Input
Amino acid sequence: MPQIAQLGEFYASQIFWLLVFFGITFFVVGRGMVPKVMDTVASRDNQIATDLKAAEAARAQADAEEAAWRARENANRAQAHGFIADARAKAAAATAERIAGTQARLDAEIAAAETRIAQARRNAAAEIEDVATDATRDILSRVAGLSLDDTAVRGAVKENLVHG
Output
């Protein structure tokens, strides 16, 4: 076969050009492009790691600020509840004071009214006694024709009014 016979002639030149081509490719790609690509990849990895660390630090700071905010809000809420309790206590004390003052005034008015009622009863009893005394004197003078003195008639009327 002629192709195999020519192999020895062209074999050395093909290997030479193959080595030259791969050598140039190695130096251009391997020594020129690959380090640049690897530097870019390393730079991106470093940037991603830095960004992740910054995000973690920002998240930790946000968590700390949220915890501080919650603590402040809880303290403010407790303070507000204290103010509300104080206001309720003051309002209850003021209301109790007003009620006590009003109750004292009402008790005084009731006592005065009871005194007036008692006085009115005494006055009414005295008027009833006067009317009964006058009526008894008139009845005795008309029916029996007797004329009694005022103290005797008043005593008899009083005794009958008391003992019924």
Remarks:
- Residues 2-121 form one domain.
- The chain is about 95% helix and 0% strand.
- The mean pLDDT is 88.
- The CA atoms of residues 46 and 89 lie 64 Å apart.
